[in-house]
Amino acid sequence: MANNTTNRKLPLKMPPDWEPPVPAWSSVFAENQQDVSMCIIGCQHKSDAYISEFVGALNGLAKNADVCDFATCEDKDGLSQTIAIIYWMDAQACADWLHSDVVTLFWELYSDDKWGFGIFREVFNVPFERLETLFSGPVHNHGFSQIRKDIEGPIQRHGYWGGMRDRIPLSAENPFEAHQTLEVIEQQGNRVVVRAHENLCIIRSGQDWSHTTGTQREEYLNQIEPVLKAGMNFLRDEGDEVNCYSCRYMTQFLPFKGKQECTFGLAFFRTMSDLEAWSESHPTHVAIFNTFLEIAPKYGPDLQLQLWHEVSVLPAGSQYGEYINCTEGTGLLAGVKLS
């Protein structure tokens, strides 16, 4: 996923003669793969009644998707959110699926007030020139990297402020500035549709500690995770201070099997610059970064904790969130004023 150093209009952020403090890898996809579609479909609920039915129905609907990950979290309003993140490597297949009779029936069924919960879907399509992936090891079994073609690494462009931007190919010529705002394009009763603006930045950043043992497991659970959770809660509860529209700190689960030892933060920032500013200078992320660097380098390639992320910068177009019976702090709703 790395881009060339020649013919750049905008310089790399990477320092001269840079040597990363820890190794990292990126995922490589087929050359003819142009983009990836991501559908986040979920419900917001106080009670767990009917949630297993909702998950079961959604799991069945997504059986032909390329990747489907389920997760749950507590949001800023004290409610639970249970979601599926569904990836399609064929944009037309994703569009056809969203407009299919079975998905339409599912959406209409669970839009009914009788269930006592809100439902939402956030739909994005991102060209590969506008995204990047990063993993702490050569095993890439999370996110849409589950359907990668290959891996690249250890890579040089990571471990410094600006590495995330440097790994996105289009950053060579595009500063990814935001000139628009989130826009309510439909509002009727308890249903709101929000259109995302160009260059909105999405990060899904995960931790998998299922392979950790002994000291490494204790270090993650007792030293890294509490600091990480504090940072995610800041973005969830006070993210408007740093232009973060929404942050969900989620625990993955397998339908009908239970929770996994995997978490991720799923956050929407106004721009990549806003994500970078929080990462580089805000005390909550500096604490995360420094805690990790206190622990990880001593293990090198023997680090058992698997860390990863995928970062996307949205193009203009039909990127949207639809919310029914949801609180105003849900997803993209948090970035608009409702009438």
TrEMBL record:
EC number: 4.99.1.7
Family statement: Belongs to the heme-containing dehydratase family.
Source organism superkingdom: Bacteria
Protein name: Phenylacetaldoxime dehydratase
Transmembrane segments: none
Pfam families: Dehydratase_hem (PF13816)
Co-factor requirement: heme b
Alphabetically ordered keywords of this record: Heme, Iron, Lyase, Metal-binding
Enzyme class, broadest EC rank: lyase
Signal peptide: none
Keyword flag Iron: yes
GO molecular function, one term: metal ion binding
